[in-house]
Amino acid sequence: GYRVSLQGNFFGRNHMYITFPEYNPRRHIKLDPPLNIQSNATASKCQIWWSVPWYLAEILQYELQYKEYSTSWEIALNKTLSSSLPQIEIEATELRSGIAYIARVRCKVSENEDSYHSQWSEWSQTTVFKRPGVPKLSENILSTRTMQFLFIPLSFGTLLYLFWNCKLSSRSRQKASPALMFPRQLLSFSHSIICTMGILR
């Protein structure tokens, strides 16, 4: 330990003031910020990692701060890591799709460490990342699915129309047999339905 004092000339007289009677540098450390912060974002999560001196890696704790790129750091989100590993994963649900984000990290000696004590370091340099957008279905796929959903009600309506049309026409036509006309039209329409189903598939 050390004794820290201040000495100076005040009002023509020399004075000495004891600032810290017992000063232990191991209890008053300010670390350098983490280095080489990098990121990799996918549709499911964003991984962020950085580096620190190897001899400090096991006794440090970290705080991550991130925000949308266009906003102020005053409204940034903070995450204090429980692990001493120099990395973190952010779930995609915490990020807006297609929006650029910026992140930075700082470190200090863990509260669980008895040998040393420190304050937070300055913030590291930043890394920028963006969650990829969810791919949209093509217009052809959307059009095919729409046709599949409309196919059943349209087919049912057409069958009703043909049924009533045959019923009305059978009254006005005496030569043609109603029992034969409707099956022929239904057979023709069924063939059209089968062809349409093949095209949609």
Summarize the structure.
The protein has 201 residues and is an alpha+beta fold. 28% of the residues lie in helices and 35% in strands.
In words, what does this structure look like?
- The protein is an alpha+beta fold and 201 residues long.
- It has a domain at 28-131: Immunoglobulins (Immunoglobulin-like), CATH 2.60.40.10.
- It has helices at residues 139-172, 178-200, and strands at 2-10, 13-23, 29-30, 35-41, 45-51, 60-68, 77-80, 87-91, 100-109, 118-119, 127-130.
- The strands form four sheets. The protein has a four-stranded antiparallel sheet, with no helix packed on it.
- It is rod-shaped.
- One of its GO terms (molecular function) is cytokine receptor activity.
- This is IL9R protein.
- It is a single-pass type I membrane protein.
How many β strands by DSSP? 11
Largest sheet data? 4 strands, antiparallel
Assigned CATH architecture of the domain at 28-131: Sandwich
Describe the global form: rod-shaped
Looking at the structure, the CATH topology of the domain at 28-131 is: Immunoglobulin-like
Helix content: 25-40%
CATH class of the domain at 28-131: Mainly Beta
Poorly predicted parts: 178-182
Calculate Rg over CA atoms.
Answer: 38 Å
In what order do the strands lie side by side in the largest sheet?
Answer: 7-6-9-11
What does the average pLDDT come to? 78
End-to-end C-alpha gap: 82 Å
Subcellular location: Membrane
Keywords: Glycoprotein, Membrane, Receptor, Signal, Transmembrane, Transmembrane helix
InterPro entries: FN3_dom, FN3_sf, Hempt_rcpt_S_F1_CS, Ig-like_fold
GO cellular component, one term: external side of plasma membrane
